[in-house]
Amino acid sequence: MKREEAQKKAAELVGKMTLEEKASQLRFDAPAIGRLGIPAYNWWNEALHGVARAGSATVFPQAIGMAAAFDPDMMEEIGDAIAQEGRAKYNAQIAHGDRDIYKGITFWSPNVNIFRDPRWGRGHETYGEDPYLSGRLGVRFIKGLQGDGPVMKAAACAKHFCVHSGPEALRHEFNAIASVKDMEETYLPAFEACVKEGHVEAVMGAYNRVNGEPACGSPFLQSILRGKWGFEGHYVSDCWAIRDFHEHHKVTSVPEESVKLALENGTDLNCGCTYTRILEANRLGMLDEAYLTESCIRLFTTRFLLGMFDETEFDKIPYSIVESPKHVALAHRAAAESAVLLKNDGILPIRNVSSPKDHNEYTIAVIGPNANSRAALMGNYHGTSSRYITVLEGIQDRTEREGCRVYYSEGCHLFINRVEDLALHDSSDRLAEALTISELADLIVLVPGLDETLEGEEGDTGNSYASGDKADLSYPEPQQKLMKTILDYGKESGTPVVIVNMTGSSMDLCEADDKASAILQAWYPGARAGADIAGILFGDISPSGKLPVTFYRNCEELPPFEDYAMKGRTYRYFDKEPLYPFGYGLTYGDCSAQEMFVKTQKAEDFDEDAAVVSVRVVNRGEATEDVLQIYIHDEEYPGAVPNPSLCGFKRVRLEKGESREVTIPIRLRAFTSVDERGKRDVRSRKFRIWAGFSQPGQRSEKLTGNVVLTQIVDL
User: Fold this and answer.
1) Which residue, among 647, 711, 583, has the nearest Cα to 70 in the 3D structure?
2) Would you state the pLDDT for residue 43?
3) Which residue from 231, 476, 674, 704 could staple onto 185, CB 3.0 to 4.6 Å apart?
4) pLDDT at 606 over 60
5) Which domains does the chain have, with CATH numbers?
């Protein structure tokens, strides 16, 4: 069904509603209207990395992990899998009369906010710090979720529009100040791509104000979204954000004024309770019924596009698709692609399993609070898996055929100073056990990190002191003590220590970088990903993920968290040397770019692409996948983004010794710059382009041992 037809049907249906009925349909928990044959519908559902909060579903890696795969094709497959499972669950639930929260087919995903600061607790819900990467992955996820047929499989929602990335503790009252240059250069592009290319059906407003205007009642933001970009879908508030207008932002005095401000500025659907005051606002003469009608038509247009009032092919999707072998296999693939190898002195992959110590079998000590943690597999906004495979379990399963012995110690609590309540107050009551098994081991696998109780959303976490954000890049104190103890032991004894870090964000890994033999960034890799991590450790899989965020050395290098100016943050503006750069990640291969050729199009031939980069790549190591990356910098315009910016990438498979040519188109937009008025244009003719398997720069080249090729081109 085309949008025009759906809008016409929606207008006809809404035209039959009373004022009271229209008002009732603008709430997330819209009631039934029996006389019109309209069933109840709850708009609130989540699917950042699988159908969430409604029972069983395939649990993929958290969004930041999927971003590390740099694999748009896989993102579309994952979106399609989520839509199928969502439809299957929706079909089954409504058959039993269950129309409750988290049971619908309108998913409030993806989160394409820019992960501008590593302290933000919700950053792992995003696709990282780069607007180009976020846009490419967001568009493909949306296309997979919504499909391209006459009926939408599910409705996606890009959130949180648009300048939103903490602090969580202040979000209900915070005013994010961003220049029009930073808006156009960083905060808006991923949303623009989701709207104009992904045709996302919904957009969610943020809690905070943006340059003084609440995001769910902002004339400026709506002028961009609906005016400049031509967005035709519906706009939903973040949950209880409209209540913040009068309770926290103080831009209105009473709920009725908040209703007026939100509805007159494009917020069609209220996640929260403030729209229960619509009728009173209308009675007082504050709100014209025309705004209700307009929003109601938008919402029912979405419902018609989803085929809710017709029989569709999706009504027949069986429940058996939920956690089907195909989807589980896709989750394993995503976990394998997402892991980023940050350091390897040659200890990985583990292939020599003859013990150098005085015992008969190769012995591995698995230590750490996340080693056997299901929570650390999941991230937040997750579903329920019918099976979990932790890192410990993955290693145990994998070593059965190797004749290895695996010892385990929790090592310490995730964040408090003892595991057992009755232990001495500061006893570190698992540390002796951790040292004991280390002394028995040929190899130590240390698994530190966080989980959704320490980094996540305000109100949803146990991290009350920071409301879900991190105070800094340090591990909780018990983990710092454990890591130092084990790393020092490994250094002194010569026992190699491999760190598998399970966090959704950058951490201080300086000591680990100095003392560990290898570091694998596993993120929150999904319900059964312990098997994939073990596969990487033992060489069944070559790691191939790349960092979608910068790993800094400390927070002192960064501007204040509350400062939304981009200067000094993310790889495009950072002016110091990072610990691990954006775009970096090792493999078991040795892939490099050998030669590059850039062909620029003539202006009259421009479609979307302004240039094509052809790169001869070779792999001198083991067979692997890797990610070829293209970066660009305007060499003449002084107001250009200061550092090279990602403008193209492609995941490639290279066998041992294989050499081939890879072609990547570069969009005209990559050649544009933004001036201080927020205007984007091609402002010069001289550009430098880089091609390689990492970001250009001395730190990347030192870590990888390979040079990134570069060439000056004239447009």
Assistant:
1) 583
2) 98
3) 674
4) no
5) 3-321 (3.20.20.300), 339-549 (3.40.50.1700), 591-714 (2.60.40.10)
pLDDT of the residue at 602 = 66
CA-to-CA dists, residue 49 to 79, 111, 136, 363, angstroms? 9, 11, 16, 35
Pair 45, 103: CB distance under 8 Å: yes
Q: Is 238 a catalytic residue?
A: yes
Q: Is the predicted pLDDT of residue 365 greater than 90, yes or no? A: yes
Q: Is the pLDDT of residue 607 over 70?
A: no
Half-sphere exposure of 47 (CA within 13 A, CB side): 38
User: For the residues of 575-635, what is the DSSP string, one character each?
Assistant: -S--SB-TT--B-SS-EEEEEEEEEEPPGGG-SSEEEEEEEEEEE-SSSEEEEEEEEEEES
Cβ(665)–Cβ(647) under 8 Å? no
Residues 56-100: pLDDT tens digits?
Answer: 999 999 999 999 999 999 999 999 999 999 999 999 999 999 999
Average pLDDT in the 158-186 region? Answer: 97
Rounded to whole angstroms, the Cα distance separating 485 from 437 reads 13
361: tokens are 């079998």
Looking at residue 402, its pLDDT comes to 79
Which residues on adjacent β-strands are paired with residue 698? none
Q: What is the dihedral of CA 569, 573, 574, 580, to 10 degrees?
A: 90
How many other CB atoms are found less than 10 A from the CB of residue 553? 17
Alpha-carbon torsion (44, 456, 273, 218), positive or negative: negative
DSSP 245: I
Query: What is the pLDDT, as a whole number, of residue 403?
Result: 80
Which of 130, 238, 429, 469 is catalytic? The answer is 238
Please state, in angstroms and rounded to a whole number, the distance separating the CA atoms of residues 153 and 440: 54
- Whether residue 359 is predicted with pLDDT greater than 70 in this model: the reply is no
Is the C-alpha dihedral spanning 493, 498, 504, 509 positive or negative?
A: positive
Chain center to CA of 264:
31
* Confidence label for 463 from pLDDT (cuts 50, 70 and 90): confident
Check if the beta carbon of residue 663 is closer than 8 Å to that of residue 597. no
What is the signed CA dihedral for 149, 150, 151, 157, rounded to 10 degrees?
A: 70
Cβ contact 623:654 at 8 Å:
yes
Residue 102 confidence (pLDDT) above 70: yes
Length of the chain (residues): 715
How many Å apart are CA 331 and CA 326, to the nearest integer? 9
pLDDT reported for residue 117: 98
Report long-range pairs for 215-219 (Cβ below 8 Å, ≥24 apart).
Answer: 215/160, 215/161, 215/162, 215/163, 215/164, 215/241, 216/241, 216/242, 216/245, 216/262, 216/265, 216/267, 217/242, 217/245, 217/251, 217/258, 217/261, 217/262, 217/264, 217/265, 217/267, 218/265, 219/265
For 596, list phi and psi in degrees, rounded to 5.
-135, 155
Half-sphere exposure of 460 (CA within 13 A, CB side): 14
The two tokens of residue 465 are 């002191």
> Which amino acid appears at position 608 of this protein?
E
Q: What is the DSSP letter of 709?
A: E
Q: What are phi and psi of 277, to 5 degrees?
A: -100, 15
∠ CA 334-336-342, rounded to 5°: 120
Tell me the H-state helices in 202-240: 219-222
Task: Supply the pTM of this predicted model.
Answer: 0.97
Average pLDDT of the segment spanning 315-332: 98
Residue closest to 336 by CA, chosen among 27, 65, 665, 609: 65
| Residue 627: Cβ-neighbour burial (10 angstroms; 0-12, 13-18, 19+) | buried
Distance CA 238, CA 249 (A): 15
Does 603 score more than 60 pLDDT? no
